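ugh ok so i messed up the first submission bc i forgot one of the chains. this is the corrected input, ALL of the components this time, i swear. 723 residues overall. if the numbers dont match what u have on ur side tell me asap before i send this to the collaborators (the ones from the other lab, u know who)
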Amino acid sequence: MEVTISTAELLTTDGIPLKQSLRKAERRNKLRAFLLVFPLLLFIIVTFVMPIGDMLLRSVDDSQINSVFPNTFDEYKNWDKGADELPPEEVYKSLFFELANGDKRQIGKALTRMNYAKSGWKSLIKKTTREIKKIIKKGEEPVSYKDTFIKINKLWGDPTYWYSFNQMVNDRSSIYYWNALDRTFDEDGEVVLQDEKRRMYVKTWLRTFKVSIYVTIFCLILGFPVAHLLANLPLRYSNLLMIFVLLPFWTSLLVRTTAWIVMLQQNGVINGILVWLGVISDDGRIQMVYNEAGTLIAMTQILLPFMILPLYSVMRVIPKSHMRAAQNLGAKPAMAFWRVYLPQTIPGISAGGLLVFVLAIGYFITPELVGGKDGKLIGSWIAYHLKTTLNWGLCAALGGILLGIMLIFYWLYNKIVGIDNIKLG
Amino acid sequence: MALPSYATPVQRTYYYFYLFFCTVVFFFLIAPLFAIIPISFSVSPFMVFTEGMLAWPPDPEAWSIRWYKNMIGDCSADVVSSTVPCSTKWMVGTVNSFYIGIIATVIATALGTLAALGLSRPHMPYKGLIMAILISPMIVPLIITAAGMFFFYARINLVYTFTGVILAHVALATPFVVITVTATLVGFDMNMVKAAQSLGAKPMRTFFKVIMPLILPGIISGALFAFITSFDEVVIVMFMASIDQLTIPKQMWAGIRQEISPVILCMATCLVLLSIFLLTTVELLRRRSEKLRGIKAR
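and heres the new structure output, hopefully the right one now
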């Protein structure tokens, strides 16, 4: 390109200042690069990011019930709980008409929600609605709606039912998050522990962390020597041995889980070998699957490649001369390892450790299949509420908390390793 | 890394213990996969090594391919067992798995390769953020993805359809394509593109004649990763597909949960063979790619 030089500024042949022209070209290049990425970006945003966002919105959404009983909730807010034991007449009156005229399906959904707040709501309202419809059919207008309700069922005179409304009055609610941590709201809207028999999530969260930490430690113990061996063998041997690490990595998760069931079950391979060796008697077979031990063993094997691969890539570049130099200077092998080799593997340990830990806390398939009753992790609860109880708010809140934990650890991973350094195979 | 001749007995012991330990770990990694292969040829309907299988000399009565026949939907008299149901479900699942997997792979590879080309350009704006969004489906636990997608797709009537499952699988598979192709493009000599263009090639022609042949190994590896991701995926399928939309993993899941049947092991054996095939292909492609790009083996 021919450039004419002027005293003021550089111009291209078209007479446009060079600076401007370059900026334009730069902008065009940026746009071109972006256009290439755009289809996938749009696709991921629509099919993945939006669903996740939708789930997070759902976890705080409590508007359905408010749209079914709008007047009742409005009147409820006027109830002065200090002064009267029961809500004012207007609350009963608006509930009367909203039950009588409401859409049956919508009410049904609202009832399910009310039952999460206090069990017993569903049957109470169903019975009451039937009676209300009878009254309307007869064409009577009750003198006192409050008395009518209490006449239909004594429970309407029980303030604890009315107190449970407290946690439903707002369109947005943090109740599902508190539920996911075994907490609920009492009549004054204070956060309290759930009833003893309804506490199950904190236990599962703790187990999830415990299992993940154990799996990470086991993977480190098993993976470190293997990565060291692979990194120090001549390439042609290590490539061959690498198959042992990569093959499980490529094999279907379900196949590996099935394989562990076959290995660990009561008349499985391991028990068979132990009996044959005479270590245990035939009727003393060990229960190794469908419990926490099964989850630990299977998850360690399944996640081990994720520990070995980052460790390997770090150890590969540690010069062998370092250990020799340390020993030359008088360090015992153990000392040389501890002071010279180990510190250099820290990046690999943290990368592998974080990766295994993060994958482990989100695991669902393996714990669900080999975990039995006491080996299930938090993912199982998410699936249970998604598919069986249809308590989607709670399901979304459990997912939200899990996602939050994951993001913290990935942020750490990104700080330490860099997220775009993820390598496959 | 053999032991030096001056090693002390203690060092020697340590060294042999270390080798023994590594052997055990390798065994731990690989043994479960191969233990299931002989059991899949058992005549017994239980997933165990029977006495006949372990007997010496081998007892031909203890071995059979009846479960393989069952798997391919052959329910003739010598195959049927009272405890193991026989149906064409496994074959229906196989067809569906390949159908979903292939369509998802094609879309994911096309979208992922384009994006990788864009991301590898020096002018790409907001690279870090976009990369983080693009690989997020690989990072978020499947169960969360499944829950989110189920809620969202239910709103737009995509649950219980193959379209919904395929869209979900494409989203899950693209990160693998993006990562492998981006890795291939590292060290790609952009001068070759400039040379092609200066010789008068249009961008499309440049892509197909110059860039594509060089990064093809990466694209194929990415496509294989994408395929296996979709092919193995069970959580999304479980929630998003209807009851009769079977796939292999879904059928295996049902098999482990309800009817512990040796047919699962036959399918598992087939899948192990498939993964051996895919691993070999990817490894060969990686070497070829390194050779093409003039990188010496590490």
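quick check: The mean pLDDT of chain A is 85. that seems consistent at least. Residues 18-60 of chain A form the longest helix (43 residues).
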